[in-house]
Specification:
The protein is of the alpha+beta class and 254 residues long. The protein folds into two domains: 3-88, 434 Repressor (Amino-terminal Domain) (Orthogonal Bundle), CATH 1.10.260.40; 127-244, Umud Fragment, subunit A (Ribbon). Helix content is 29%, strand content 24%. It contains seven helices and twelve strands. Strands 3, 4, 5, 6, 7, 8, 9, 10, 11 and 12 form a ten-stranded mixed sheet that branches. It has a two-stranded antiparallel ribbon with strand order 1-2. Helix 2 packs across helix 3. It is rod-shaped and about 115 Å long.
Amino acid sequence: MTLAEYVADYREKHDLSIRAMASLVGVSPQHMSNVESGINNNGKPMKLTVSLVSKIAKATGIDELTLFETLDDFATVNPKKGKQTPVVSELERKYRALDDHGRELVDAVLDIEYTRCAKPVKEERKVKVIPLFPAAAGPGEPMETTAFQEYEVDANSTAQFAVRISGDSMEPELHDGEVVLCVRRRAQIGELAVIMVNGFLYVKQYIADSFGNIYLRSLNRQRKDLDVDIMASGNDTVTGYGVVIHRHVPLVRE
């Protein structure tokens, strides 16, 4: 039986006009006429939908699943298998057979799982590992070339190493315990340099004069007792490691 035949048979049995049948189903008279003729307004075969068949089933008092299984035209030909395959999936058939409680339960679970699966997948953070050295904003820390930990940063970071600050002499820019990222290059005047002096590693503001003297200054001038002066005429062993990747800070003048 086709849907058109089912509708025509129902109208005849209940002595209903096209208009009355349309009102019962909740569609326009023209739409109902198209359903019964099997032809749409463009003269092409009427395309049936799950929604339309469900409305007709409800209006005529037949179980949805029963009507779906009865209709011959509510199927499509599967060219690969050469046989009729119902448009309504097995899952939908089972859903339609449930009572109100069953549908509410399935809807609740479906909403939860859809929300979980629809969340965008977080892109895995790509990192690289750089050495982390203990350094000082104070009196300095002894340093061996192997005295470092591994420290993860974003893979696209320009940082080549990191130092952990100790002390308060670089406040308010650098804080005790803070890890700062650094690059390996020669320090320019005013930059926060990472310099080893006589085996002790410092993080200080770098200042130099035309005579080759180097002045490592604490930004916290209440701790200027921790400044380091390296005279060109002295015997200090000095090794520059690099500079802190940091915004510009005012030059210490005193």
